[in-house]
Design goal:
The protein is α+β, with helices and mostly antiparallel strands. The chain contains 2 helices and 7 strands. The longest helix is centred in the N-terminal third of the chain and has 10 residues.
Length: 114
């Protein structure tokens, strides 16, 4: 759930949505690596960055942090699909530019957003 919320904030910015009418984003692959136990109740901070941008697919990397420690990392491959045809479609040039602007750097502590 925490990872979904952070991904949606990147992909569905209401002020400037990435998906055009008639298209949608779908998760093609999702990997989660747990490094440390997450304690509840508590606060978890999530860093999300665009790691790669391809023809119709992007990869998002995420780091979950609690008490200044990276407790988990995740990687999601997300494809842009034509809603009617249910097939992948090319990322439009303005979307590629915007995704490239969201790239951050990866560190040994997890994901460091710009």
């Amino acid at each position: 759930m925490l990872l979904d919320t952070s991904r949606v904030e990147v992909l569905r910015d209401l002020a400037a949505p990435l998906a055009e009418a008639g298209s949608l984003f779908a998760i093609a692959r999702l990997a989660l690596d747990s490094h440390l136990e997450i304690h509840w109740p508590g606060t978890v901070l999530i860093g999300t960055r665009v790691a790669t941008v391809g023809h119709s697919l992007m990869t998002l990397e995420q780091g979950l942090f609690q008490l200044d420690r990276c407790v988990a990392t995740a990687e999601a491959a997300i494809v842009l699909m034509d809603e009617a045809m249910r097939k992948s479609r090319s990322l439009p040039a303005p979307v590629v530019r915007r995704l490239l602007s969201l790239m951050g750097e990866r560190t040994s502590q997890g994901v460091n957003p710009r």
